[in-house]
Amino acid sequence: MHPSPHARPSFARDFPRTDAIDALVHAFACGNYALVRREAPKVIHSEQADDVRSAARTLLERTKPDPLAVRLLWIAAALLVALTAYWVVNGKGPPPEASHPSRELIP
Q: What long-range pairs does 3-8 form, CB within 8 A, spacing at least 24?
């Protein structure tokens, strides 16, 4: 399902109406964040109007990952590495086969 060309996210309702910003907002609303990340810096560097550059900067910032989520992901990865290292160093393998009593098989 694609949003209508006139639908804008609530944070973008006050953005200036230019072709470049409209294209970026539409790409953002459709979930094409790669296009926003690729084209927003071009708009930031090429536009003269501060409000257009600010709108492009806002769209670009909204495509970046949440810093808290990144930190939590790193913590989870560090815990996984620590637990794996602990298990490798202190873990015990299965008991050797000789410790099992032998059984006589009767045909």
A: 3/29, 3/30
DSSP state at residue 100: S
Give 35-62 pLDDT, tens digit per residue: 999 999 999 999 888 999 999 999 999 9
DSSP character string of 9-76: -GGGTTS---HHHHHHHHHHHHT-HHHHHHHHHHHHHH---HHHHHHHHHHHHHTSPPHHHHHHHHHH
45 half-sphere exposure, CB direction, 13 A CA radius: 5
Q: Structure pTM?
A: 0.64
Q: How far apart are CA 46 and CA 20, in angstroms?
A: 11
